[in-house]
Design a protein that fits this description.
- By secondary structure, the chain is α/β, with parallel strands linked by helices.
- The protein has two domains: 94 residues, lambda repressor-like DNA-binding domains (434 Repressor (Amino-terminal Domain)); 134 residues, HprK N-terminal domain-like (Udp-n-acetylmuramoylalanyl-d-glutamate--2,6- Diaminopimelate Ligase, Chain: A, domain 1).
- Helix content is 47%, strand content 17%.
- It contains eleven helices and six strands.
- Strands 1-3-4-5-6-2 form a six-stranded mixed sheet, with helices on both faces.
- Helix 1 runs antiparallel to helix 2, helix 3 crosses helix 4 and helix 3 crosses helix 5.
- It starts with a helix and ends with a helix.
């Protein structure tokens, strides 16, 4: 009974978050498509849970219809939650985490209105992709910029979860890095992985710790070195992608 009640609260929190994001967006269809993809559902699967045709859902996602009304948004969000709960609720649990103030270590955190490719992230950060060149077309849905030194001093292991924002399909940028080993060791040990990791500090790819590169390869995580001059440039450039 307790577990059921907790799951209900978690689901309600997530439903409010998704619905609010759709309602407030200038492109509600794109947001709907993003969340469907994050829940790893195709259009026909989700349409079945909503009891609508795939073409109707497609029209909304591609903004061929007027903005969805409250009733349709509610049906959409409930379908996402119900479909996932029947599969074990992995995405509901992942995206429902409450956030506490980690501003002492988190420099900036945002979600992209439309997903950006790994290739675009690399270009934006004047980066060198050390691992994962064959995956540069894969999509990123948000970013977190972290002060590595502050994170090491002030964050606990459980706090890593909060660096993922609304979803883990994001790039985490670790600033003030010496050679990149510590961030990769932390990610290696943590059960939830970001989609991409960027480090900032080394001036040349040759200065990046070879063990960090090896860990990124073992985890199958695209690993990039940003050659921008400052943290401020990193934040400024990433915000332009929002």
């Amino acid at each position: 009974m307790v577990e059921k009640a907790v799951n209900q609260v978690v689901g309600e929190i997530l439903m409010s978050r998704i619905a609010g994001e759709i309602i407030l967006s200038d492109s509600p269809g794109s947001v709907m498509k993003k969340w469907r993809q994050l829940f790893e559902l195709n259009q026909s699967e989700l349409a079945k849970y909503m009891n609508v045709s795939s073409s109707v859902l497609s029209d909304y996602e591609n903004n061929r219809r007027k903005s969805p009304g409250a009733a349709f948004i509610k049906k959409f969000v409930l379908a996402l939650i119900n479909a996932d709960m029947q599969r074990g609720g992995i995405h509901v649990k992942r995206y429902s985490m409450l956030h506490r103030d980690l501003s002492i270590a988190v420099i900036d955190m945002n979600e992209f209105k439309t997903p950006r490719s790994i290739k675009k992230i690399v270009e934006t950060l004047d980066g060198v992709l050390l691992v994962g060149r064959e995956r540069d077309d894969e999509l990123i849905y948000g970013y977190t910029v972290v002060d590595s030194l502050s994170a090491i001093k002030n964050l606990e292991a459980s706090d890593l979860l909060y660096l993922f924002g609304k979803n883990p399909t994001r790039v985490i940028v670790f600033t003030k890095v010496s050679r990149g080993r510590s961030p990769m060791v932390a990610i290696r040990l943590y059960p939830i992985k970001p989609k991409m990791i960027v480090i900032h500090g080394p001036k040349l790819p040759e200065e990046v710790d070879s063990f960090a590169i090896e860990l990124a390869e073992l985890e199958g995580i695209p690993f990039c070195l940003s050659l921008l001059k400052s943290t401020e440039e990193i934040v400024e450039n990433l915000r332009k992608l929002i």
